[in-house]
Design goal:
The protein is mostly helical and 78 residues long. It has one domain: Arc Repressor Mutant, subunit A, CATH 1.10.10. The protein contains four helices and two strands; from the N terminus they run αββααα. It has helices spanning 8-11, 32-40, 45-51, 57-74, and strands spanning 12-13, 24-25. It is globular and about 40 Å long.
Length: 78
């Protein structure tokens, strides 16, 4: 059975009335990009979650899993 948190619509959404349509974590105004920027800067997932308590750990992990799945699916074999 598929984990409902691993479907994009359960993790993030885009609404023209929220941050001009920037993809945000569902139920928040936190852009998904912000998670990636924090990780890129060397912050831990826990640091991100402390800074943005409206995002659940499940949402953050699911977003990273979705990103991983998309990268793997579109990777060119060596």
């Amino acid at each position: 059975m598929e984990n409902p948190m691993t479907t994009p619509s359960a993790v993030f959404h885009s609404d023209p009335d929220i941050l001009s349509g920037t993809p945000v974590f569902f139920g928040t105004r936190v852009p998904v990009r912000t998670l990636l920027e924090h990780l890129e800067a060397g912050d831990s997932l826990n640091d991100f979650l402390e800074d943005f308590p409206s995002v659940t750990r499940g949402q953050a992990v699911a977003a990273l899993e979705l990103a991983k799945d998309m990268l793997v699916a579109h990777a060119n074999p060596a």
